[in-house]
Amino acid sequence: MSDYPHLLAPLDLGFATLQNRVLMGSMHTGLEDKASDYDKLAAYFAERAHGGVGLIVTGGIAPSIRGWLKPFSGRLSMPWHVARHRKVTQAVHAEGGKVCVQILHAGRYAYHPLSVAPSRIKSPITPFTPSALSARAVESTIGDFVNSAKLAQDAGYDGVEVMGSEGYLINQFLVERTNRRDDDWGGTPEKRRRFAVEIVRRTRAAVGANFIIIYRVSMLDLVEQGQSWEQVVALAKEIEAAGATLINTGVGWHEARVPTIVTSVPRGAFTWVTRKLRGEVKVPLITTNRINMPDVAEAILARGDADMVSMARPLLADAHWVAKARAGKAASINTCIACNQACLDHVFENKRASCLVNPRACHETELTIAPAAQKKRIAVVGAGPAGLACATTLGERGHAVVLFDAAADIGGQFNMAKRIPGKEEFFETLRYFRTRLGETGVELRLATRVDATALQREGFDEIVFATGVHPRKPAIPGVDHRKVVSYYDVLASNRPVGARVALIGAGGIGFDMAEFLTQAHPSPSTDIARWSEEWGVDTGYAAPGGLAKPRPEPAERQVWLLQRTPGKPGEKLNKTTGWVHRAALKAKNVTMLAGVSYERIDDAGLHIRIGERSEVLPADSVVLCAGQESNRSDYDAALALGLKAHVIGGADVAAELDAKRAIAQGTRLAASL
Ligand code: FAD
Ligand code: NAP
Ligand code: SF4
Predict the structure, then answer these.
(1) Which residue of 336, 355, 414 sits with most ligand 1 atoms within 8 Å of its CB, as the best mutation to test the pocket?
(2) pLDDT at 2
């Protein structure tokens, strides 16, 4: 008997059976855009099919040039596009999987001047004002979707997903916010729905009965003038009648100011909306957003919120997610921590996606972990993210590995990161590595600080230094005052801080510290009701779009967050998550000051100057979050002794160090030794 009977139950679609209830949701990787990358894309999907996922949906592919997300992005509109897609379908089918292509027309979210929309209304997140589609152009755009679906069928896809949510073109037709037409395609809710319904109806007529059509309904727009619940229900019914096989859930337009997928969103925070639709239609419903572990997915399905779960990033993090759940090895799953750092952030920076916890994602043909030709005895010093990734990959390749850490537990700085409200997922990475150390036979020696001489005595063939960083102590007069502590003292040693706190440094750690000091513990990220109230998500769905007035919980402390550089604090935070951190701190009335000079710290507080103005911040505590410096003296000593040594992670370069670099560097070095 499986631990996950609902999750692993097959789903009979009448003309095809899915082997389980896991849909790999659509996600751009950057490999969709160039024909020359389709071998890599095929390998990426084949590995997920091999890992047992029930149904894969590709990243969004445009049905026309005007539908492009950005110039020259992936398109399926011409017969010669079919061959590259066949590589994907053949690779997935060879592994026993099923795959649909997502047809996505960006509408006014397009990043190019040819963009079109129901009405000429610019989006707040793109620089281009779209042209309004003429009635003739609306008809030809529907034809583009149908043509794309027919080509998908020629390419061997098992079906298509029609992207109707997230604020893209079809979604733009559905609401007055973006559709001010008074012809057959606007003016009333019925007419605004026609575009979506006609796409599905005409696609079904063109592809026949035995082809999957998933339609992604925007069940919760999370923008003003969004759809009412009654309109969502009416749309779903018409989409079903038009011939959809499955209805997927969409949550939040890209311009919404409510986070929907970042790590501080509670797990399964939006499945209630899919459940609300149950009983209104007969086709199976797929739910989504922040579902990342089998027990979460199983509970959602067992309580009847949906018939299937969609996960995109968790399958990037671990291609074998389903196989591990089936084998009762959930503890071996490399969990997606919803950081967006290597997936969505990359896509927004026009870089190929990967995964912070799994650098092989989207690099399956390039980063291979092969058995070592010559087995060696290797020491890894430091069990932070860099050392853990390196040691486990070396172990997987068959080397005899000893992993040392001076601390009593593995994890390095992740032990501090996991204490930040909204970063609870970091616990999962440490659980994964703990399991993986056992599986790969790494010998772990905790509470053992080693130096070059001790390592030399043991006669290792190679030594990897992953000794990390230590906090920088800036040369500010009074920095040794009793009210000054470092972030390390607070997060690792539980040093108490007062009610009024000044933070020196507004980088990633300064922001995290501000959240740690102002948020209640446990944080709303662990409680859907509290979190929804805090961000203004109305689970009662009284108003269109499902928005309510945000009701942030009161701040636990008064906090000033400071930086010397002029400009907006937090500007360098990650692209897709920085705005959430800034909004969260604004809601807690954190005062953010830039262009600050630190004059001194004394009993009165922190004395600063901004331009000509001097000020004393009456802080009870001053917390240093002023960056870090590398711990590389052991590495240097090993080199001086003539040992074969390598250095990775923060010990290599402390500046702009993050876990993505640490894990990737550790994995890549281990793959090469
Ligand atoms: P470390 O994590 O510093 O690990 C080094 C290890 O080496 C330590 O365990 C130490 O005990 C051990 N060690 C040192 N010297 C010796 C010795 N001589 N003998 C034995 N053991 C030794 N990064 C992100 O990408 N995203 C985030 O959201 C994020 N949030 C963060 C939040 C906080 C609060 C903090 C503090 C950090 C955060 N980071 C984040 C940064 C991330 O944790 C670091 O980039 C990462 O931990 C660096 O990994 P590392 O393995 O190089 O070093
Ligand atoms: P950081 O991002 O480099 O920020 C350091 C801060 O300290 C800056 O605000 C800097 O601003 C200030 N500073 C630097 N030198 C100083 C000095 N001598 N005196 C006073 N202030 C000084 O480093 P971090 O915040 O320590 O974070 C470390 C790494 O962890 C980051 O690179 C980040 O990628 C990662 N991290 C990521 C996240 C995430 O959510 N993705 C979260 C936490 C950490 P000024 O120079 O302008 O004063
Ligand atoms: Fe998940 Fe982060 Fe990996 Fe993206 S980069 S898949 S959010 S763990």
Answers:
(1) 414
(2) 85
DSSP letter (8 states) at residue 594:
-
Q: How far is the CA of 590 from the centre of ligand 2 (A)?
A: 18
Mean pLDDT, residues 330-350: 96
- Give me the pLDDT at residue 212, please: 98
- Secondary structure (DSSP) of 187-206: SSHHHHHHHHHHHHHHHHHH
The torsion of the CA quartet 180, 184, 188, 191, rounded to 10 degrees, works out to -120
Provide the annotated active-site residues.
Answer: 168
Cite the beta strand spans of 345-391 per DSSP E.
377-381
CA dist., res. 41 & res. 26, Å (int): 13
Distance separating alpha carbons of residues 15 and 288, to the nearest angstrom = 24
Choice from 44, 311, 339 to test ligand 3 binding pocket (greatest atom count within 8 A of CB):
339
393-to-166, 403, 663 alpha-carbon distances in Å: 38, 12, 11
659 exposure class (CB count in 10 Å sphere: 0-12, 13-18, 19+):
buried
- What is the tens place of the pLDDT at every residue in 102-147? 999 999 999 999 999 999 999 999 999 999 999 999 999 999 999 9
- Cβ of 422 closer than 6 Å to ligand 2, yes or no, is no
- The amino acid at residue 309 is V
Distance of alpha carbon 259 from alpha carbon 344, whole angstroms: 14
Do 375 and 400 meet the contact criterion of CB atoms below 8 Å apart? yes
Give this prediction's pTM.
Answer: 0.96
Q: pLDDT (tens digit, 9 = 90+) per residue, 248-276?
A: 999 999 999 999 999 999 999 999 999 99
How many Å apart are CA 669 and CA 673, to the nearest integer? 7
Kindly report the average pLDDT of the chain as a whole number.
97
Residue 564 Cβ inside 6 Å of ligand 2? The answer reads yes
Q: Given this model, what pLDDT does residue 534 score?
A: 96
DSSP 209-261: SSSEEEEEEEEE--STT---HHHHHHHHHHHHHHT-SEEEEEE--TT-SS-SS
Which domains can be identified in the chain, with CATH numbers? 11-348 (3.20.20.70), 377-470+634-672 (3.40.50.720), 473-519+555-626 (3.50.50.60)
Ligand at minimal distance from the CA of 385 is: 1
Residue 318 structure tokens: 């671990």
Q: Is the pLDDT of residue 1 over 80?
A: no
Secondary structure class of 369 (helix, strand, coil): coil
Q: How far is it, in rounded angstroms, from Cα 400 to Cα 381?
A: 14
Strand-pairing partners, residue 22, are 309
Question: What residues line ligand 1, using a CB cutoff of 6 Å?
Answer: 339, 341, 381-387, 404-407, 412-414, 416-417, 420, 449-450, 466-469, 491, 508-509, 512, 631, 634, 649-650, 657-660, 662
- Beta strands 131-132; 246-251: pairing state: unpaired
* Average pLDDT of the residues in 65-73: 95
Joined together, the tokens standing for residue 232 give 């969502």
Q: Report residue 28 as tokens.
A: 């751009």
In whole angstroms, what is the distance from residue 613 CA to residue 404 CA?
50
Task: Supply angle C-alpha 291, 293, 299, rounded to 5.
Answer: 75
Which band of pLDDT confidence, cut at 50, 70 and 90, is reported for residue 593? very high
**Contact of 148 with 103, CB cutoff 8 Å:** yes
